[in-house]
Amino acid sequence: MKERQKISDKIWFVLLSILAVLYVYPVFMILINSVKKERAISTSTVFKLPTSETFSGLVNYANALGAQGFARSFLFSLLITVTSVAAILVFCSMCAWYITRVKSKFSQALYYLFVFSMVVPFQMVMFTLSQTADKLKLNTPFNIWIIYLGFGAGLAVFMFAGFMKSIPLEIEEASMIDGCNPIQTFFLVVFPILKPTMVSVGILEAMWVWNDYLLPTLVLDIKKYKTIPMLIQYFRGSYGKVEMGPMMASIMLTIIPIIIVYLIGQKQIIKGVTAGAVKG
Prior knowledge:
mainly alpha; MetI-like fold; 2 domains
């Protein structure tokens, strides 16, 4: 049995290694092309490593940072991501706490509505959403977090509710005996305990918001506001020409921050997901 298990583990290791290479390969291609000259990207040498003739150094990165308001778009994406994730963490954790502690038909129905929202395709509501966002003036980077809160609440409430079912109720009862009101009990007692799930939900939601292209494109005024994904889509050089080198460099500059965040918190993601895998 042990020998069979070892063979099975090796097979799985090989298969998963191949899968990992397939996922990493496109990022690697973007990286090597981001340091090539423009003509090398437009020819058959696009799949080859840079040589002394095709290597351009960090010129493409300098052009990407200096062209078309990259810093402005970066700040817009950062603002949207931070405000959206902060709102999701605070409001969804409070909602999940209410759902798990107040046993009623309303709380159960509310929970199932959040779960159901995860299976509703965005394409079903995107045109109505665009019109509603314009009417309610939710079409700027400063208040689009309200829309992201609605779309990100399903996963967040699901994970928070699963984790809270494992928190002993006696801890909260003891705090209330000491004189805490429900708000104080949540923020002083429950909120710190939610750290593993907070980190995992925060990273997953941040990756989604940071890389999202469709929702900002539908809601925001493209002439005034562009997030990083929108900027890359409309990346143009002089005379309206698409410059592939700076575009590749801007893609790498966009990928690096979220990869760093993920690598820092990947262990917390596993802890948060497994912590919420309890029977209700």
